[in-house]
Amino acid sequence: MATERTQVGIIGSGPSGLFLSQLLHLNGIDNVVLERRSREYVLGRVRAGVLEQGTVNLMREAGVQARMEREGLPHDGFNIALDGELHRMDLKARVGGSVMIYGQTELTRDLMDARTEAGGRLLYEAEGVGIEGLEDDRAILRYRHDGADHTLECDFIAGCDGYYGPSRQAIPKDVLREYERIYPFGWMGLLSATRPIAEELVYARHPRGFALCSMRSQTRSRYYVQCSKDDRVEEWSDDRFWDELRSRLPGDLAATLETGPSIEKGIAPLRSYVAEPLRYKRLFLAGDAGHIVPPTGAKGLNLAASDIHYLSRAMIAWYHENNAALLDSYSDNCLRRIWKAERFSWWMTNLLHTFPDTNPFEHRMRDAELDYLFSSEAMMTAVAENYIGLPY
Ligand code: FAS
Ligand code: PHB
Q1: CATH class of the domain comprising 184-270+354-388
Q2: pLDDT in the model for residue 356
Q3: Residues of the chain with confidence (pLDDT) below 50
Q4: 49-79: per-residue pLDDT in tens?
Q5: Is residue 55 in contact with ligand 2, taking CB distance under 6 Å?
Q6: 3-state helix vs strand vs coil in the chain, percent to 5
Q7: Closest ligand to residue 196's CA
Q8: Which ligand 1 atom is the nearest neighbour of the CA of 166?
Protein backbone atom coordinates (compact mmCIF):
# COMPACT_ATOMS: atom_id res chain seq x y z
CA MET A 1 0.00 0.00 0.00
CA ALA A 2 1.37 3.42 -1.04
CA THR A 3 1.59 6.02 1.77
CA GLU A 4 1.65 9.68 0.81
CA ARG A 5 1.56 12.88 2.83
CA THR A 6 -0.19 16.23 2.49
CA GLN A 7 -1.09 19.10 4.78
CA VAL A 8 -4.87 19.04 4.16
CA GLY A 9 -6.81 16.04 2.89
CA ILE A 10 -10.13 17.12 1.31
CA ILE A 11 -12.98 14.66 0.75
CA GLY A 12 -15.28 15.82 -2.06
CA SER A 13 -14.93 17.82 -5.26
CA GLY A 14 -18.10 19.90 -4.97
CA PRO A 15 -18.05 23.65 -4.35
CA SER A 16 -16.83 23.25 -0.73
CA GLY A 17 -13.90 20.99 -1.55
CA LEU A 18 -12.86 22.88 -4.67
CA PHE A 19 -13.05 26.33 -3.08
CA LEU A 20 -10.95 25.09 -0.15
CA SER A 21 -8.41 23.36 -2.40
CA GLN A 22 -7.95 26.47 -4.52
CA LEU A 23 -7.68 28.92 -1.60
CA LEU A 24 -5.18 26.70 0.25
CA HIS A 25 -3.15 26.30 -2.95
CA LEU A 26 -3.03 30.08 -3.46
CA ASN A 27 -1.63 30.35 0.08
CA GLY A 28 1.04 27.70 -0.41
CA ILE A 29 -0.75 24.99 1.57
CA ASP A 30 -0.47 21.52 0.06
CA ASN A 31 -3.74 19.61 -0.30
CA VAL A 32 -5.27 16.59 -2.03
CA VAL A 33 -8.92 16.24 -3.10
CA LEU A 34 -10.45 12.75 -3.08
CA GLU A 35 -13.68 12.53 -5.09
CA ARG A 36 -15.79 9.40 -5.32
CA ARG A 37 -17.36 10.23 -8.70
CA SER A 38 -15.87 11.08 -12.09
CA ARG A 39 -15.25 14.70 -13.11
CA GLU A 40 -18.00 14.36 -15.73
CA TYR A 41 -20.50 13.04 -13.17
CA VAL A 42 -19.84 15.92 -10.80
CA LEU A 43 -20.25 18.43 -13.65
CA GLY A 44 -23.44 16.68 -14.78
CA ARG A 45 -25.31 17.57 -11.61
CA VAL A 46 -27.68 20.54 -12.01
CA ARG A 47 -28.08 22.34 -8.70
CA ALA A 48 -27.89 25.91 -7.49
CA GLY A 49 -28.13 29.04 -9.59
CA VAL A 50 -27.98 32.08 -7.28
CA LEU A 51 -24.71 33.43 -5.82
CA GLU A 52 -24.71 35.78 -2.84
CA GLN A 53 -22.24 38.68 -2.92
CA GLY A 54 -20.06 36.73 -0.46
CA THR A 55 -19.79 33.84 -2.91
CA VAL A 56 -19.00 36.24 -5.76
CA ASN A 57 -16.23 37.68 -3.57
CA LEU A 58 -14.90 34.19 -2.85
CA MET A 59 -14.76 33.46 -6.59
CA ARG A 60 -12.63 36.61 -6.97
CA GLU A 61 -10.42 35.66 -4.00
CA ALA A 62 -9.96 32.23 -5.61
CA GLY A 63 -8.97 33.92 -8.88
CA VAL A 64 -11.71 32.17 -10.88
CA GLN A 65 -14.11 35.07 -11.48
CA ALA A 66 -13.41 35.80 -15.18
CA ARG A 67 -16.17 33.69 -16.77
CA MET A 68 -18.67 34.51 -14.02
CA GLU A 69 -18.11 38.24 -14.63
CA ARG A 70 -18.52 37.68 -18.39
CA GLU A 71 -21.48 35.31 -18.35
CA GLY A 72 -23.13 35.78 -14.95
CA LEU A 73 -26.35 37.83 -14.69
CA PRO A 74 -26.45 40.37 -11.83
CA HIS A 75 -30.01 40.66 -10.46
CA ASP A 76 -31.13 43.64 -8.37
CA GLY A 77 -34.40 42.03 -7.33
CA PHE A 78 -36.71 39.03 -7.46
CA ASN A 79 -40.50 38.58 -7.54
CA ILE A 80 -43.13 36.79 -5.51
CA ALA A 81 -46.32 35.88 -7.40
CA LEU A 82 -49.51 35.63 -5.34
CA ASP A 83 -53.17 35.66 -6.39
CA GLY A 84 -52.31 36.60 -9.97
CA GLU A 85 -50.03 39.51 -9.06
CA LEU A 86 -46.26 39.97 -9.03
CA HIS A 87 -44.65 41.64 -6.00
CA ARG A 88 -41.07 42.74 -6.58
CA MET A 89 -38.47 42.53 -3.82
CA ASP A 90 -36.07 45.34 -4.73
CA LEU A 91 -32.69 44.25 -3.35
CA LYS A 92 -30.80 47.28 -4.68
CA ALA A 93 -33.22 49.90 -3.33
CA ARG A 94 -33.71 48.22 0.03
CA VAL A 95 -30.24 47.06 1.00
CA GLY A 96 -28.00 48.28 -1.83
CA GLY A 97 -27.27 44.70 -2.81
CA SER A 98 -27.77 42.18 -5.60
CA VAL A 99 -27.25 38.50 -6.40
CA MET A 100 -25.43 36.88 -9.31
CA ILE A 101 -27.18 34.29 -11.46
CA TYR A 102 -24.45 31.78 -12.32
CA GLY A 103 -24.98 28.02 -12.23
CA GLN A 104 -23.24 25.86 -9.64
CA THR A 105 -22.14 23.64 -12.53
CA GLU A 106 -20.19 26.56 -14.05
CA LEU A 107 -18.70 27.58 -10.70
CA THR A 108 -17.58 23.98 -10.19
CA ARG A 109 -16.08 23.86 -13.69
CA ASP A 110 -14.16 27.10 -13.15
CA LEU A 111 -12.66 25.80 -9.90
CA MET A 112 -11.84 22.38 -11.37
CA ASP A 113 -10.10 23.99 -14.34
CA ALA A 114 -8.08 26.28 -12.07
CA ARG A 115 -6.92 23.38 -9.89
CA THR A 116 -6.05 21.26 -12.92
CA GLU A 117 -4.10 24.13 -14.57
CA ALA A 118 -2.15 24.59 -11.34
CA GLY A 119 -1.29 20.88 -11.23
CA GLY A 120 -3.53 20.32 -8.22
CA ARG A 121 -3.99 16.76 -6.95
CA LEU A 122 -7.70 16.10 -7.64
CA LEU A 123 -8.23 12.33 -7.58
CA TYR A 124 -11.53 11.35 -9.21
CA GLU A 125 -13.15 7.93 -8.79
CA ALA A 126 -11.37 7.47 -5.46
CA GLU A 127 -13.19 4.56 -3.83
CA GLY A 128 -13.86 3.57 -0.23
CA VAL A 129 -12.52 6.75 1.35
CA GLY A 130 -12.12 6.13 5.08
CA ILE A 131 -10.99 8.37 7.94
CA GLU A 132 -8.66 7.00 10.63
CA GLY A 133 -6.45 8.18 13.51
CA LEU A 134 -8.66 10.98 14.88
CA GLU A 135 -8.61 9.54 18.42
CA ASP A 136 -4.80 9.45 18.30
CA ASP A 137 -4.53 13.10 17.23
CA ARG A 138 -3.80 12.01 13.67
CA ALA A 139 -5.65 12.49 10.38
CA ILE A 140 -5.32 9.55 7.99
CA LEU A 141 -7.28 8.93 4.79
CA ARG A 142 -7.48 5.49 3.25
CA TYR A 143 -8.79 5.02 -0.28
CA ARG A 144 -8.52 2.93 -3.45
CA HIS A 145 -7.60 4.54 -6.74
CA ASP A 146 -6.74 2.91 -10.07
CA GLY A 147 -6.96 -0.47 -8.41
CA ALA A 148 -4.38 0.27 -5.69
CA ASP A 149 -4.87 0.92 -1.97
CA HIS A 150 -3.52 4.22 -0.68
CA THR A 151 -2.87 5.87 2.67
CA LEU A 152 -2.74 9.66 2.89
CA GLU A 153 -1.24 11.12 6.08
CA CYS A 154 -2.63 14.64 6.69
CA ASP A 155 -2.39 17.40 9.26
CA PHE A 156 -6.12 18.03 8.85
CA ILE A 157 -9.07 16.48 7.00
CA ALA A 158 -11.81 18.66 5.45
CA GLY A 159 -15.09 16.76 5.15
CA CYS A 160 -16.53 18.41 2.04
CA ASP A 161 -18.33 15.22 1.04
CA GLY A 162 -21.95 16.37 1.10
CA TYR A 163 -24.86 15.06 3.11
CA TYR A 164 -24.25 11.38 2.31
CA GLY A 165 -20.46 11.37 2.67
CA PRO A 166 -18.41 9.54 5.35
CA SER A 167 -16.94 12.49 7.24
CA ARG A 168 -19.90 13.30 9.52
CA GLN A 169 -20.09 9.59 10.39
CA ALA A 170 -16.53 9.84 11.77
CA ILE A 171 -17.77 12.05 14.63
CA PRO A 172 -18.72 9.88 17.64
CA LYS A 173 -22.48 9.62 18.26
CA ASP A 174 -22.07 10.92 21.80
CA VAL A 175 -20.37 14.05 20.44
CA LEU A 176 -22.58 14.79 17.41
CA ARG A 177 -25.83 16.73 17.86
CA GLU A 178 -28.27 16.70 14.92
CA TYR A 179 -31.25 18.92 14.16
CA GLU A 180 -33.65 18.11 11.31
CA ARG A 181 -36.94 19.09 9.71
CA ILE A 182 -38.14 17.04 6.73
CA TYR A 183 -40.75 18.75 4.54
CA PRO A 184 -43.78 16.84 3.25
CA PHE A 185 -43.02 17.65 -0.41
CA GLY A 186 -40.19 17.88 -2.96
CA TRP A 187 -39.17 20.05 -5.92
CA MET A 188 -39.47 18.75 -9.47
CA GLY A 189 -36.84 20.67 -11.46
CA LEU A 190 -36.50 21.08 -15.24
CA LEU A 191 -33.74 22.68 -17.30
CA SER A 192 -34.59 23.84 -20.84
CA ALA A 193 -32.91 25.70 -23.68
CA THR A 194 -35.63 28.35 -23.69
CA ARG A 195 -35.87 32.08 -23.07
CA PRO A 196 -36.50 32.76 -19.36
CA ILE A 197 -40.11 33.77 -18.67
CA ALA A 198 -39.02 36.94 -16.84
CA GLU A 199 -35.93 39.09 -16.41
CA GLU A 200 -35.73 38.25 -12.69
CA LEU A 201 -36.65 35.18 -10.64
CA VAL A 202 -40.32 34.55 -9.86
CA TYR A 203 -41.26 32.58 -6.72
CA ALA A 204 -44.96 31.67 -6.94
CA ARG A 205 -47.30 30.67 -4.14
CA HIS A 206 -50.45 28.99 -5.48
CA PRO A 207 -53.14 26.68 -4.03
CA ARG A 208 -51.82 23.96 -6.38
CA GLY A 209 -48.35 24.41 -4.93
CA PHE A 210 -45.13 26.38 -5.12
CA ALA A 211 -43.36 27.16 -8.39
CA LEU A 212 -40.08 28.90 -9.21
CA CYS A 213 -38.99 30.44 -12.50
CA SER A 214 -35.21 30.81 -12.64
CA MET A 215 -32.54 30.77 -15.33
CA ARG A 216 -28.93 30.04 -16.19
CA SER A 217 -28.57 32.50 -19.11
CA GLN A 218 -30.78 34.41 -21.57
CA THR A 219 -31.28 31.15 -23.47
CA ARG A 220 -31.36 28.61 -20.67
CA SER A 221 -34.16 28.43 -18.09
CA ARG A 222 -34.48 26.56 -14.84
CA TYR A 223 -37.97 25.86 -13.46
CA TYR A 224 -39.29 24.05 -10.38
CA VAL A 225 -42.75 22.99 -9.21
CA GLN A 226 -43.57 21.64 -5.76
CA CYS A 227 -44.42 17.96 -6.00
CA SER A 228 -45.21 15.08 -3.68
CA LYS A 229 -42.12 13.78 -1.90
CA ASP A 230 -43.12 10.34 -3.23
CA ASP A 231 -43.23 11.43 -6.86
CA ARG A 232 -40.84 9.84 -9.34
CA VAL A 233 -39.30 11.74 -12.30
CA GLU A 234 -40.79 9.20 -14.72
CA GLU A 235 -44.25 10.41 -13.67
CA TRP A 236 -43.46 13.91 -14.89
CA SER A 237 -43.57 14.21 -18.67
CA ASP A 238 -42.42 17.53 -20.10
CA ASP A 239 -46.02 18.36 -21.04
CA ARG A 240 -47.25 17.64 -17.52
CA PHE A 241 -44.50 19.84 -16.09
CA TRP A 242 -45.21 22.78 -18.41
CA ASP A 243 -48.98 22.59 -17.80
CA GLU A 244 -48.49 22.48 -14.02
CA LEU A 245 -46.03 25.38 -14.11
CA ARG A 246 -48.39 27.51 -16.20
CA SER A 247 -51.30 26.77 -13.83
CA ARG A 248 -49.35 28.19 -10.87
CA LEU A 249 -48.27 31.48 -12.49
CA PRO A 250 -50.25 34.72 -13.03
CA GLY A 251 -52.19 34.36 -16.30
CA ASP A 252 -50.50 37.18 -18.21
CA LEU A 253 -47.07 35.80 -17.27
CA ALA A 254 -48.00 32.18 -18.00
CA ALA A 255 -49.13 33.23 -21.46
CA THR A 256 -45.54 34.25 -22.31
CA LEU A 257 -43.96 30.94 -21.20
CA GLU A 258 -41.64 29.51 -23.85
CA THR A 259 -41.53 25.75 -23.50
CA GLY A 260 -39.16 23.23 -25.01
CA PRO A 261 -37.76 19.74 -24.45
CA SER A 262 -36.20 19.16 -21.02
CA ILE A 263 -32.39 19.00 -20.98
CA GLU A 264 -32.42 17.70 -17.41
CA LYS A 265 -35.16 16.76 -14.96
CA GLY A 266 -34.90 15.73 -11.33
CA ILE A 267 -36.73 15.62 -8.01
CA ALA A 268 -35.03 17.01 -4.89
CA PRO A 269 -36.38 16.23 -1.41
CA LEU A 270 -36.55 19.20 0.96
CA ARG A 271 -35.05 19.13 4.41
CA SER A 272 -33.49 21.44 6.99
CA TYR A 273 -30.57 19.84 8.77
CA VAL A 274 -27.69 20.97 10.97
CA ALA A 275 -24.94 18.91 12.59
CA GLU A 276 -23.03 20.28 15.58
CA PRO A 277 -20.11 20.61 16.12
CA LEU A 278 -18.51 21.08 12.70
CA ARG A 279 -15.10 20.15 14.04
CA TYR A 280 -13.94 16.97 15.73
CA LYS A 281 -10.21 16.94 16.55
CA ARG A 282 -8.40 17.20 13.17
CA LEU A 283 -11.61 16.78 11.11
CA PHE A 284 -13.56 19.83 9.87
CA LEU A 285 -16.99 19.56 8.18
CA ALA A 286 -17.96 22.12 5.53
CA GLY A 287 -20.96 22.61 3.23
CA ASP A 288 -23.65 19.97 2.89
CA ALA A 289 -21.60 17.58 5.04
CA GLY A 290 -22.60 19.77 7.98
CA HIS A 291 -25.94 21.28 6.99
CA ILE A 292 -28.78 21.21 4.47
CA VAL A 293 -31.33 23.90 3.67
CA PRO A 294 -34.47 23.70 1.51
CA PRO A 295 -33.48 25.47 -1.76
CA THR A 296 -36.29 28.06 -1.38
CA GLY A 297 -33.90 30.68 0.00
CA ALA A 298 -31.06 29.85 -2.45
CA LYS A 299 -28.69 29.31 0.48
CA GLY A 300 -27.18 25.82 0.08
CA LEU A 301 -24.30 26.64 -2.20
CA ASN A 302 -23.80 30.00 -0.50
CA LEU A 303 -23.46 28.44 2.96
CA ALA A 304 -20.80 26.13 1.53
CA ALA A 305 -18.95 29.26 0.40
CA SER A 306 -19.14 30.95 3.81
CA ASP A 307 -17.96 27.78 5.57
CA ILE A 308 -14.92 27.74 3.28
CA HIS A 309 -14.34 31.45 3.90
CA TYR A 310 -13.98 30.61 7.62
CA LEU A 311 -12.10 27.32 7.16
CA SER A 312 -9.56 28.63 4.64
CA ARG A 313 -8.75 31.62 6.88
CA ALA A 314 -8.38 29.33 9.89
CA MET A 315 -5.97 26.99 8.09
CA ILE A 316 -3.99 29.88 6.59
CA ALA A 317 -3.60 31.44 10.09
CA TRP A 318 -2.36 28.10 11.38
CA TYR A 319 0.20 27.49 8.65
CA HIS A 320 1.35 31.09 8.22
CA GLU A 321 1.28 32.31 11.86
CA ASN A 322 1.06 29.11 13.90
CA ASN A 323 -2.19 30.59 15.25
CA ALA A 324 -4.89 28.02 16.14
CA ALA A 325 -7.53 30.54 17.31
CA LEU A 326 -9.61 30.46 14.11
CA LEU A 327 -9.40 26.67 13.93
CA ASP A 328 -10.73 26.52 17.48
CA SER A 329 -13.57 28.97 16.74
CA TYR A 330 -14.38 27.56 13.26
CA SER A 331 -17.47 25.60 14.28
CA ASP A 332 -19.03 28.42 16.32
CA ASN A 333 -18.26 31.02 13.63
CA CYS A 334 -19.90 28.89 10.92
CA LEU A 335 -22.90 27.81 12.99
CA ARG A 336 -23.83 31.39 13.90
CA ARG A 337 -24.30 32.18 10.17
CA ILE A 338 -25.67 28.71 9.29
CA TRP A 339 -28.54 28.91 11.76
CA LYS A 340 -29.63 32.30 10.43
CA ALA A 341 -29.63 30.95 6.87
CA GLU A 342 -31.54 27.89 8.10
CA ARG A 343 -34.13 30.21 9.63
CA PHE A 344 -34.57 32.25 6.43
CA SER A 345 -34.78 29.12 4.24
CA TRP A 346 -37.31 27.53 6.62
CA TRP A 347 -39.35 30.76 6.72
CA MET A 348 -39.41 31.16 2.89
CA THR A 349 -40.36 27.48 2.53
CA ASN A 350 -43.23 27.75 5.01
CA LEU A 351 -44.41 30.98 3.42
CA LEU A 352 -44.58 29.82 -0.20
CA HIS A 353 -45.48 26.13 -0.20
CA THR A 354 -48.82 24.39 0.35
CA PHE A 355 -48.70 21.92 3.22
CA PRO A 356 -50.98 18.90 2.93
CA ASP A 357 -51.86 18.89 6.63
CA THR A 358 -52.36 22.64 7.09
CA ASN A 359 -55.21 23.56 9.42
CA PRO A 360 -57.28 26.65 8.47
CA PHE A 361 -55.62 28.80 11.13
CA GLU A 362 -52.09 28.05 9.83
CA HIS A 363 -53.30 28.78 6.30
CA ARG A 364 -54.53 32.17 7.44
CA MET A 365 -51.23 32.80 9.21
CA ARG A 366 -49.41 32.31 5.90
CA ASP A 367 -51.83 34.67 4.16
CA ALA A 368 -51.29 37.29 6.88
CA GLU A 369 -47.48 36.86 6.72
CA LEU A 370 -47.49 37.55 2.97
CA ASP A 371 -49.94 40.45 3.34
CA TYR A 372 -47.67 41.93 6.02
CA LEU A 373 -44.56 41.36 3.87
CA PHE A 374 -46.01 43.19 0.86
CA SER A 375 -47.23 46.12 2.98
CA SER A 376 -44.19 46.59 5.22
CA GLU A 377 -41.00 48.39 4.16
CA ALA A 378 -39.26 46.93 7.23
CA MET A 379 -40.26 43.36 6.38
CA MET A 380 -39.24 43.68 2.72
CA THR A 381 -35.91 45.11 3.84
CA ALA A 382 -35.43 42.15 6.18
CA VAL A 383 -36.16 39.71 3.34
CA ALA A 384 -33.79 41.59 1.04
CA GLU A 385 -30.86 41.52 3.51
CA ASN A 386 -31.31 37.78 4.03
CA TYR A 387 -31.68 37.03 0.32
CA ILE A 388 -28.44 38.80 -0.70
CA GLY A 389 -26.71 37.00 2.19
CA LEU A 390 -25.99 38.08 5.75
CA PRO A 391 -22.45 39.31 6.45
CA TYR A 392 -19.70 36.73 7.07
P1 FAS B 1 -21.72 18.59 -2.73
O2 FAS B 1 -22.76 17.55 -2.41
O3 FAS B 1 -21.92 19.51 -3.87
O4 FAS B 1 -20.31 17.86 -2.98
C5 FAS B 1 -19.91 16.77 -2.19
C6 FAS B 1 -18.98 15.92 -3.04
O7 FAS B 1 -18.46 14.87 -2.22
C8 FAS B 1 -19.72 15.27 -4.20
O9 FAS B 1 -19.04 15.51 -5.41
C10 FAS B 1 -19.72 13.78 -3.84
O11 FAS B 1 -19.61 12.94 -4.97
C12 FAS B 1 -18.47 13.68 -2.98
N13 FAS B 1 -18.49 12.52 -2.07
C14 FAS B 1 -19.56 12.05 -1.36
N15 FAS B 1 -19.20 10.94 -0.69
C16 FAS B 1 -17.89 10.71 -0.99
C17 FAS B 1 -16.94 9.72 -0.61
N18 FAS B 1 -17.31 8.73 0.18
N19 FAS B 1 -15.68 9.80 -1.11
C20 FAS B 1 -15.32 10.82 -1.91
N21 FAS B 1 -16.17 11.79 -2.33
C22 FAS B 1 -17.44 11.73 -1.86
N23 FAS B 1 -28.51 24.93 -3.35
C24 FAS B 1 -28.92 26.15 -3.73
O25 FAS B 1 -28.41 27.13 -3.21
N26 FAS B 1 -29.90 26.29 -4.68
C27 FAS B 1 -30.46 25.20 -5.30
O28 FAS B 1 -31.32 25.35 -6.15
C29 FAS B 1 -30.05 23.91 -4.96
N30 FAS B 1 -30.57 22.82 -5.57
C31 FAS B 1 -30.13 21.57 -5.21
C32 FAS B 1 -30.63 20.42 -5.83
C33 FAS B 1 -30.18 19.15 -5.45
C34 FAS B 1 -30.73 17.91 -6.14
C35 FAS B 1 -29.23 19.01 -4.41
C36 FAS B 1 -28.75 17.65 -3.96
C37 FAS B 1 -28.72 20.15 -3.80
C38 FAS B 1 -29.16 21.43 -4.20
N39 FAS B 1 -28.65 22.59 -3.61
C40 FAS B 1 -29.06 23.83 -3.96
C41 FAS B 1 -27.67 22.51 -2.58
C42 FAS B 1 -26.32 22.29 -3.23
O43 FAS B 1 -26.09 23.29 -4.16
C44 FAS B 1 -25.32 22.20 -2.13
O45 FAS B 1 -25.53 23.20 -1.14
C46 FAS B 1 -23.90 22.30 -2.63
O47 FAS B 1 -23.72 21.33 -3.63
C48 FAS B 1 -22.99 22.09 -1.44
O49 FAS B 1 -21.71 21.88 -1.91
P50 FAS B 1 -20.77 20.80 -1.19
O51 FAS B 1 -20.79 21.04 0.27
O52 FAS B 1 -19.49 20.86 -1.92
O53 FAS B 1 -21.50 19.40 -1.38
C1 PHB C 1 -31.99 27.85 -9.33
O2 PHB C 1 -31.82 28.67 -10.25
O3 PHB C 1 -31.69 26.64 -9.45
C4 PHB C 1 -32.57 28.34 -8.03
C5 PHB C 1 -32.75 29.69 -7.83
C6 PHB C 1 -33.27 30.13 -6.62
C7 PHB C 1 -33.62 29.21 -5.65
C8 PHB C 1 -33.44 27.85 -5.86
C9 PHB C 1 -32.91 27.41 -7.06
O10 PHB C 1 -34.15 29.65 -4.48
Answers
A1: alpha beta
A2: 85
A3: none
A4: 999 999 999 999 999 999 999 999 999 999 9
A5: no
A6: 40, 30, 30
A7: 2
A8: 18
